[in-house]
């Protein structure tokens, strides 16, 4: 799991543990997921650099857990999101 600012200019994510500064650690907190412009929190998924396990236990008693796929993005929508993310990267001049 990688924060949106871990996206490289070429649209890829770092290989292995090359760029762990952008990782979202499974033992972290929801606030560790960085917000993009309008406050939307985005997680980019990549292959894990090493074997991992995740438990499905509730970690925050006051927060109701929910995970679901609400929609499937088309290829065009994915490209649009990746462009939006790339344009927001530090030091990047928007298209």
Describe the structure.
The chain is low in regular secondary structure and 95 residues long. Helix content is 15%, strand content 8%. The chain has 1 helix and 4 strands. Strands 1-4 form a two-stranded antiparallel sheet. A two-stranded antiparallel sheet has the order 2-3. Strand 2 and strand 3 form a beta hairpin. The radius of gyration is 15 Å and the shape is globular. The two termini are 26 Å apart. The mean pLDDT is 82.
Mean pLDDT: 82
| Multimeric status of the protein | single chain
Strand proportion, as a percent range, falls in 5-15%
Can you write the helix and strand succession as a string? Answer: EEEEH
* Count of extended strands: 4
Tell me, what's the shape?
globular
Structural class: little secondary structure
- Order of strands in the sheet with the most strands? 1-4
| Biggest beta sheet summary | 2 strands, antiparallel
What fraction, in percent, of the residue positions are helical? 10-25%
Low-confidence stretches: none
Based on CA atoms alone, the radius of gyration comes out at: 15 Å
Number of discrete helical segments = 1
- What's the N-to-C terminus distance? 26 Å
Which keywords apply here?
single chain; two-stranded antiparallel ribbon; 4 strands; 15% helix; 95 residues; little secondary structure
Question: How would you sum up this structure in a few lines?
Answer:
The chain is mostly loops and 95 residues long. It has 1 helix and 4 strands.
